[in-house]
UniProtKB/TrEMBL annotation:
GO biological process: NAD+ biosynthetic process via the salvage pathway
NCBIfam families referenced in this protein's UniProt entry, alphabetically: NAPRTase_put, PRK09243.1-5, PRK12484.1
PTM summary: Transiently phosphorylated on a His residue during the reaction cycle. Phosphorylation strongly increases the affinity for substrates and increases the rate of nicotinate D-ribonucleotide production. Dephosphorylation regenerates the low-affinity form of the enzyme, leading to product release.
Pfam families, alphabetized: NAPRTase (PF04095), NAPRTase_N (PF17767)
Ranges for domain Nicotinate/nicotinamide phosphoribosyltransferase: 152-323
Coiled-coil segments on the chain, per record: none
Protein name, per record: Nicotinate phosphoribosyltransferase
Taxonomic lineage of the native organism: Bacteria, Bacillati, Actinomycetota, Actinomycetes, Bifidobacteriales
Organism field: Bifidobacterium goeldii
Transferase as UniProt keyword: yes
Top-level taxon in the UniProt lineage: Bacteria
Length: 439
């Protein structure tokens, strides 16, 4: 789909730009911050995902003649603003939490610095990516914890918008999943692709034996056969008869998955297929995965609950102005005082402190650029911010396949540094507190 990320905005971002260009404030230096006031109810932590997609979008964040004509024809902005937009390219700086990092209420997940005109146009794009991708990664992380050492695979493409499915596949891998059924996501991001056959493949053949024979002839004995179209016991018997004991795997997609997996495991072993793996699917979430821990299951395919954030499809992140250049050219902290929506003024530093190797507190420090440059964190505090963009130059190490692999590995490390209660599925407060210091 050919489109400009610069139009993935709410209209008021352009009308604000238009007004600010008229009154002379559009070029004021500003700092915007992305954070969430609270985690989804009962969640202990969140996982950052989507920053790499934001960087990808920034590379194409400009408007072509057709886009400019659209804005002009709709009278969204004035002709003078159209002229300004002809040269639109983000030239500011961005720093924030790494993909795969844990976040908590008031964590400064992303800080965007530049002119007001540039920064305000990014709001909707940044929030739509971070809110969704982080919701999926957070759900995926909970599922991976519940699954223990058994791999989880994304099968949610048919349960969400077609482009959200691609984003969800990427975010799921950041959150700990091992692969996806979505081929476009696999192509775009170099992810492992998985998939064999659905029930319709069995139904189109004259018999289940014919279907299994066809699949094995096409994909080899190491394939995974779907065994619950008719009768599972008969299907397993037929599968081993056709493929032999070298059969790669079977998939169960319905019924009492724990008891069925146990029966199928015993049956496979009795038939000599002791190395044949068992995959289960069917509306799984982290609670279902936890309930299957004692069942002889080798891997899981997760769909609906993954791509919907397992009941929390957004992280409620916001994008707020925290510092701006005043009429005298001096940077000045600013904040909302709205009821229940007050913000913390100033740009931020973020650290995590540890005791006996476990995280015990998130430390957010707010102040002027000079104050933060002089700030000395305590020994052992981990700096949580990395530089993503420096005056328009994107740090390429946070894009592409290698960045996703790094985020996948980092999530596991960061989660292991939290108290073990972070992995509890019981509802509770964030596993560590956030302390805010205003210098």
């Amino acid at each position: 789909m050919d489109h400009s990320p610069a139009l993935m905005t709410d209209m008021y971002e352009y009308t604000m730009l238009d007004a600010c260009l008229r009154d002379g404030t559009a070029n004021r230096k500003c700092v915007f911050e992305v954070y969430t006031r609270h985690l989804p109810e009962g969640r202990r932590y969140g996982v950052v995902a989507g920053v790499g997609r934001i960087l990808d979008a920034l590379e194409h964040f400009h408007l072509d003649d057709e886009d400019l004509k659209f804005l002009s024809d709709r009278n969204v902005v004035s002709p003078e603003t159209i002229k300004w937009l002809e040269n639109l390219h983000f030239s500011g700086s961005i720093k924030g939490y790494r993909e795969g990092e844990m976040f908590f209420p008031n964590s400064p997940i992303l800080q965007v610095e530049g002119t007001f005109g540039e920064c305000t146009l990014l709001e909707t794009l940044v929030l739509s990516i971070l809110n969704y991708d982080s919701a999926v990664a957070s759900a995926a992380s909970r599922m991976v914890s519940a699954a223990k050492d058994r791999p989880c695979m994304d099968m949610g493409g048919r349960r969400t918008n077609e482009w959200a499915a691609v984003a969800a596949a990427r975010a799921a891998v950041v959150g700990g999943f091992k692969g996806t059924a979505n081929l476009l996501a696999a192509q775009m991001y170099g992810l492992k692709a998985i998939g064999t056959a659905a029930h319709c493949f069995t139904l189109v053949h004259d018999s289940e034996r014919d279907a299994f024979t066809s699949q094995i002839n096409a994909l080899g004995r190491n394939t995974t056969l779907l065994v619950d179209t008719y009768n599972i016991e008969e299907a397993v018997k037929t599968a081993v008869a056709v493929a032999g004991p070298e059969l790669g795997g079977v998939r169960i997609d319905s019924g009492d998955l724990a008891s069925l997996a146990q029966r199928v495991r015993n049956q496979l072993d009795a038939l000599g297929a002791t190395n044949t793996k068992i995959t289960v699917t069917n509306d799984l979430d982290e609670y279902a995965l936890a309930a299957l821990q004692s069942a002889p299951v080798d891997s899981y395919g997760v769909g609906t609950m993954l791509v919907t954030g397992s009941g929390a499809p957004t992280c409620a992140m916001v994008y707020k102005l925290t510092e701006r250049e005043n009429s005298n050219g001096v940077m000045q902290p600013v904040a909302k005082k709205s009821k229940d929506k007050a913000s913390v003024p100033g740009r931020k530093l973020a650290y995590r402190s540890y005791e006996y190797g476990l995280a015990d507190c998130e430390h957010v420090v707010s102040g002027s650029e000079d104050q933060l440059a002089a700030y000395q964190p305590k020994d052992g505090w981990k700096d949580l911010l990395v530089d993503y963009v420096d005056h328009g130059e994107i740090n390429k190490q946070y894009q592409g396949h290698d960045a996703i692999v790094a985020a996948h590995e980092y999530r596991a490390q960061a989660l292991a540094e939290l108290p073990v209660t972070a992995q509890s599925l019981m509802k509770g407060e964030p596993v560590i507190n956030t302390e805010i210091t205003v210098l």
